[in-house]
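Need tokens for this chain, all 496 residues.
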Amino acid sequence: MKFTLRLSIVCSLLVGTACVNPSFDDSEINFSGVEASTQSIYGGTATSGDPQVYGLRMVYSNAEGACTATLIGARTLLTAAHCAEGVIGQSVQIYAINGPKLYSNDDTDYIEITEKRVHTGWGGNPGENADDLALLLLEHTVTVPPKPWNLSASNVGSGKPVRMVGYGNTETGGSGSKKETAQEIDQVTTHLLHFDQRNGHGVCQGDSGGPVFATGTDGVERIIGVASFVSGSCDYAGAHTRVDAYAAWITTWLQEKETPTCARDGLCKQGCQTPDIDCTCGADGQCTTACSDPTLDPDCGKNCAKDSVCSETGTKCAVADPDCAGLGEYCSKPIQCPDRMCTNDSQHEDYYCSTACSTTVKCPAGFECSNKVCKKEKQPEAEPGEACTKGDTWCTQYTECLGKPTTCVETCESDGDCTEQNYACTGKDGDKKFCVAKKEAEQPKEPPKQNPTTPTTGLTPAGTPAPVMGCASAPVSNVWLVLAAMAFVVSRRRRG
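Here are the structure tokens for all 496 residues:
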């Protein structure tokens, strides 16, 4: 068979509506008429790798189109629905090639597509619920190992770095080239991955059906999305269909068309030397610890693995999510809480995880409903210096219940923060400090009063020399008593 490029690319990347930042305009939808000189993978570089990425040539009765696809089975290619459907009034024959160039003079470089399945939900218009996916069956198996594909919602999220690969015509026209570029997910919706391409990187015409690759927590790169449409120009915004949202549909095809292997192919094969991960982590309706990595099990909910995001209430996880803070436990942002509520109250400055409440939905023990949010129950309040019971009293004005007996004690950073006199800010640097009454030893004392009879300066209070204390001497007070006694005796003798 011989190929002749007769017209411009007609089955090109759809231009349509989307959401997110930036905004999209429905009036810009366009399904064809893209010039053959349009550049592929916006801001990308040529690559000779990614053998699982194939270029597609769609041959119509009087036209030809180009798209991209990814090998996910020994004979299965995953692409966009709008790449596999025929033009109105015309059938289409599709051929695949996985070399660095889309066009080749050697017909043996191409493999004919013998069967296709367009998602039944595809109606010809791009958007959130467009179901823009198709599966193609190669004429024969290939030696290239299939690319792992994503079955779990845990592997997609805003800000996640990704890699895009696609075919399309170069900016100078002529043959299409396989190119790649790096991006990160801007927003995730139920069926789509959105990308802000204003940084000059993303998909463009000719890249339809091409893959978005992302590396999971296990270090394996998987296809997580299929290029669907752009809005406006290629340097504005693009959207890809989420693969995990259609896991059951893809698996059904693989079970019908492919032979299970011991590799990760979405099919369970018994008798492997190492148990097939598709058996332990397959879609069997069970999320258990038998699957060592919950991100690989489509039956396990989103964010069950350690990924800094708490799985939401009602999510099926084999074990408790290590990223979740419990009700009433400290949180700094809502994604740490199962119900996405991180709140505080007048008695609890630190934020804690909470849940919603209403007249019919009551709060758990220890909480009370306030503005439809469960808040920690308020405790009786006590002012600074008042008696308190630790754990049962709320000390106001940045005080805490301490001491014996317990009272509300001020917290402080320096002595100037203590409102009571003779209180000092006590505690180690780096730790919380409290205002504590100064010890008596630390209180200022009056100078000691001198005893006038105490020989401290060698002079008596009148300035007369103090008696010298010797071995036969007596204290001054005793000398005066002796003299007084002697005078009394002399007086009695005279009277006699």
